[in-house]
Every structure is written in C-alpha cells, then in structure tokens.
Amino acid sequence: MFTAWTQIFKRDLLIAFRRRSEIIHPIIFFVMVISLFPLAIGDDKVLLQKIAPAIIWVTALLATMLSLDTLFRSDFEDGSLEQMTLLKTPLSMLVTAKIMAHWVITGLPLILITPLLAVLLYMPSESISMLLLTLLLGTPTLSLIGAVGIALTVGLRQGGVILSLLILPLYIPVLIFATLALQNVEQGFSAEAQLAMMLAILVLAITLSPFAIAAALKVSLN
Amino acid sequence: MEKQYSFTANLNVKNLACWRNDQVLFNNLNLSLSPANVLFLQGENGSGKTSLLRILCGFRLADEGDIFWDNKSVLSNYEYFQNISYVGHKNGIKDELTVEENLNLMRSMATASDIKTENVLKQIGLFKRADVLARQLSAGQKRKLALARLMMTENSFWVLDEPFTSLDTATVEFFELLIKKHVTRGGMLILTSHHEINLSGLSVNHLNLSS
Amino acid sequence: MGLFAILFVYGLYSGLILAPIDYEQGEAYRIIFVHVPAAWMSLFIYMVMAITGAIALIWRLKLAEIVMISCAPIGASFTFLALVTGSIWGKPMWNTWWVWDARLTSELLLLFLYFGVMALYNAIEDRRTAARAVAILALVGVVNIPVIHYSVEWWNTLHQGPTVTKFDKPSIHLSMLIPLLVMAVAFKLYFIGSLFMRVRTELLAREQKSKWVTALLESK
Question: How far apart are the C-alpha atoms of A203 and B150, rounded to whole Å?
C-alpha cells in the first residue's frame, strides 16, 4: 500500500526536478508581482509596511493557484491517471502523495523566499516569523483545496479561468485568518486563536479533500 | 504447463447502455466471458468500442446496466478493478522518465511478478536504450513500453485497446505469443484491433458493435 | 404559482403599508421584507443543491441531477436580490451603497460559489458528467460555507445581530414578523414553482429522443 504512495511521491519529485521551469515559474511570478506593489504605490514605508501581509498573502494565493495547473495535467494526458485508478492503493491515497510532492516543489520554495520579500516591503522581523508560520499552515490547505478544483477542470480546455471561479471563494477563510493573525501580532496581541483555526482548517482539508479529489478525477476521466 | 492464474472468474455484462450526449452508442448490450477466453470487439469508428472498454475498466460510468464479476456487481468490488491490466490509446508512461525508470515504476506497482526489469528490456529490444528518456522514443517504441506492463503482471483480466498500433511485425508476433500464454494460463482478454491478429488455437468470440 | 402571487402581494402590502414604522430606521427598514427572505432562500437553495447533489452521486438518479442543476440559477438570483436589497438598505443606514460587513460579504461569496457551479456546469460538454462534477463542487462548497461564514463573521461585524431567531423574546414586533414570514413562504413557493418549470424543461430537453417524450408530442 505504501510502496505505491512513496513511488508516486518520488516519481513526481524526480519529474519536477527534470522539468525545473515548472518549479521556478510560480516563484518568479510570486517575486515579480510583489515587487510591482512598491513600484505602483511608491516608496512609502508606512503604507507598504501596513499592507505587506495582505500583498504577500494574496500573491501567495494566486501563485499557488497558478502552480497547481500542472498537478494532474500530465497524468491525465499521458494516461497515467487511468493506470493509477487500477492500483491496489486507493486513488484518494495516491493523490495525497502527488499533492505532498507538489507542495514540496512549489509551496516550500515560496515560503523560503518570503523573508527576502518581506524585507523589501519593510516588514518588522517579529512579523516575518509569524508570516512564515501562517504560510506554513496555510499553503498546504491551499494546495489541497485547489487540487479539488484542478481535478474537476483537468479535462477542460478553458480550465484556467473556471478554476479561479471555483477555488478562490474557498480560499477566503485561509486568507482571512492568516492576515488577522498578522494584524494581531503587529498590534502586540496573541495570534493563537487564528493559528488554531488555520490548523483546524488544515486538518479538515487533509481528511476530506482527498475523497473529493479522487471522486472529481474519476468524473474528469469519464 | 504454465502456472494457472489464481484469481479468475466469469465476467457478465447485462443490458449495458452508453450514450454520448444525446447519441446512443450502444443499448441493451449483453456479453459474457469466462477464463481462457478472448473477446474480439469489432465495429466501425465511433461505434463505442473504446467506450465499452473504458466502462469495463471503471473509467467511465455506464448509463444503464450492470457488470458482474463472479456474479457480483463490480460497482463496489475493488478486487475486480485491481485485477485489470489495461493498455489504452494513451500509453500511461512518463515522458520525463527513462525507459528503465518507467519499467521499474510499472513493476513496483504491479501485482507480484518476479521478472527482472533487465529481462523485460532485452525481450522488447530496448536494452540499449534503457537510459533514454521516454520522450525521445519513437511512437512504436513507446507502444512497446506501454505493452511491457503486461509482462510484469499477474492480473488475469487484460483489456487492450488497439494494442498493436505502430508496432513492427516482430514485436507484434512477440506480443501475440504473450497473449497466447496469458490465455492458456486461464487468463481473459478483451481487445479491439484494426490489425490482423493471429490468435490461432485460442477460443475467440467476436462481437460487432456496429450491428 | 397562483398561491405564490397571493402571498407575495399580501406580504408586500402588509410589509410595506401595514407594518408600523421602525422608530430607529424609519421607512427604509421596509426593504427587509424582501431582503431577509431572499437571504434565507439563497442559503436554503444551496443546501437543497448539495443534498440533491449527494443523492445524484450516491444513487445516480437522473432526476436528482436535474433538480440540483436547476437550483443554481434560482439560488444565484435570490443571492443577487439579497445583495441588491441589502445595498439599497445600506444607503440610508450607513450612508454608503456598500459596506464590507460580515453578512453582506458572506452573501457575496455565496454568489461567487453559485457562479462557480454554473460555470463548471456549462464548461463540461456531457450533461451527466457535468452534473456529477457540479455535485462534488456543491458538496465541497457546503462543507466550506460554515467555515467561510465563521471566518467572515470573525473578520468583521457591522450588521445588526440576528433579530428573528430569538423566539423566546422576539425583538421584532408581531406586525412586522407576520409579513416577513408570509414573504418567506411566498419566496419558497416561488422557488418550488420555478424549480418545477426548470426541471420540466431540462428533463424534456435531455429526454427528447426517448419514447415517452415522442409519445407526449404526438398526442398533442
């Protein structure tokens, strides 16, 4: 049961490593969009500092959504998905391997580069650690929820636009709690409640979304 | 005498119907297949051959009717689906992996089989190209690689959709032998093909979906 | 539909003319007789959609698929109505057309969810596949709605607290409550009526080749 899981996980990492551009593009997008804000607003330290968490989080949301596009597409197109449904390991398990590999490839680099961008937006250092914590708790949730949308639209030609219609409303709780946590820290309050909520949403997403993803993939195969 | 398959049963399809939007592909389709038998699907393009195979593999839902394996509906019978080896229009191999990596992946996920990857490579004539990315193979070589999953499985039910497209004569003969071995071991096979296939000595039923 | 018209007219009349003027909000509050029932309906219809979606997925009933997909445009219309009336109400109350208050925001997000459902349904060619995809989406949405609502609530609350659900000590006067409930029933009837019409059309369109439809056409 777990051999298939680890095989898929390793396979996806290896493929991503051979197709490096797919890892790098969302990161470049992330960096570029964030650097657009100071250019548009002007070098206003107070304002930038105030809206930095919002900028970083909204951009992270969009970058995650963009990067998800490749999650199931190649498996769908080359027939690997059909083969995966015939394995002993349930599809709902296998998709978690794919999502985890995908998060390691796209989510983790995004988190690693964030401190640099936070400095560009004049974020104070105590907020940066909180920002990283919210991203660490939030981006896996985004991947899991986004995967449902991707699984539903993988067979469609104009999937991209519809995908954003489907999953952006579902991303809002994560966005709200993450930015609230950051606001709290800035004002010197505890952000425990918000972090607990984010953790709860992550647990909920881990338990429920694999089944939705597997069901959606089977519908897309039809 | 080859070792017989341990997991096998009768397949029965009752009143199967498949529509594509408003168009009826087939209606009231009944068929049955027992171990050591071959079902050869025929019919013109668009008569629903591929759709039927995909329904049998669970990729597509039938609009009406049921499929029974061992007289039990397959809807919640995972053993049935895990016992299928399917080679469809899409090869199911990863372009970014080498030939050998693709084979290793297939083998690690297949039901128990002791054949070595090296032997498979030699038999399908890709030994020298083991480290080449699958992307760089020709269409025929890719097809060989896709069919190689049949050499590494203990599944007793094979579903093959146009298996021999773009293969050369020698390779076709090799896989014909593989199919014969499979069926004499008590295996079952449903296939479609526009190529002449030599299945002499096997019990073959024909089903024409056009009529 | 006839019953809907009677209740609707009575509800509107008693709400807009008979009910007393609110001592804080003046005449403007009267729009809640449309706004509140519409907001209730928007959520109620999403629930109906999710439940029929679950039925469609589990038992693969074609009728459930059709009911589910027929719900979406009606639900979206009610959500839109709730948003527009909420914003009209907001103008005299808050002196601005739009306030990012918790419930209006939730309602807006609900509208987005409805848009997603309709977009997905229209994007997939095969009707049955589309219906199953939408059913999954509706179920995912229904799990998310409480989370979304809760997060938005936490994020900001400017709106009045719930005034109707406190049954022990209703803070709303009976002369206002009755028209409100009459309107709610009227909207529900409208939903059922228009749902039946949509289901009938969709069913006939899907089954246009089947025997009973041809028989029906020939008999006319």
Answer: 40
Quick check: A80 and B93 CB within 8 A?
yes
How many residue pairs from chains A and C have C-beta atoms closer than 8 A? 77
Q: Is C183:C5 a contact under the CB 8 Å cutoff?
A: no
The CA-based diameter of chain A, rounded to the nearest angstrom, is 58
B178 and B208 both lie in a single domain: yes
Instruction: Select from B21, B64, B76 the residue whose CB has the most chain C CBs within 10 Å, as the one to mutate to test that interface.
Output: B21
Residues B55 and B112 in one domain: no
Report the Cα B138 to chain-centroid distance in Å: 21
- Do B163 and B199 lie in one domain? The reply is yes
Which residues of chain C make contact with B61, given a CB cutoff of 8 A?
A: 60, 128
Identify the domain containing residue B137 by its residue range: 95-155
Distance in angstroms (rounded) separating the CA atoms of residues A216 and A121: 39
Query: How many pairs of residues across B and C have Cβ atoms under 8 Å apart?
Result: 10
Query: Tokens 């250019």 identify what position?
Result: A39
The answer to whether residue C208 neighbours chain A at the CB level (below 8 Å) is no
* Type of residue numbered C119: A
Q: What's the confidence (pLDDT) of residue A153?
A: 93
Are B56 and B122 in the same domain?
Answer: no
Q: What is the model's pLDDT at position C168?
A: 42
pLDDT in tens, B29-76: 999 999 999 999 988 888 889 999 999 999 998 888 899 998 888 887
ipTM of the complex: 0.90
What CATH number should be reported for the domain holding residue B44?
Answer: 3.40.50.300
Considering only CB atoms, C148 lies closest to which of A155, A159, A173, namely A173
Which segments in chain C show pLDDT lower than 70?
Answer: 1-2, 13-29, 156-172, 209-211, 220
Per-residue model confidence as pLDDT tens digits over B188-203: 999 998 888 888 888 8
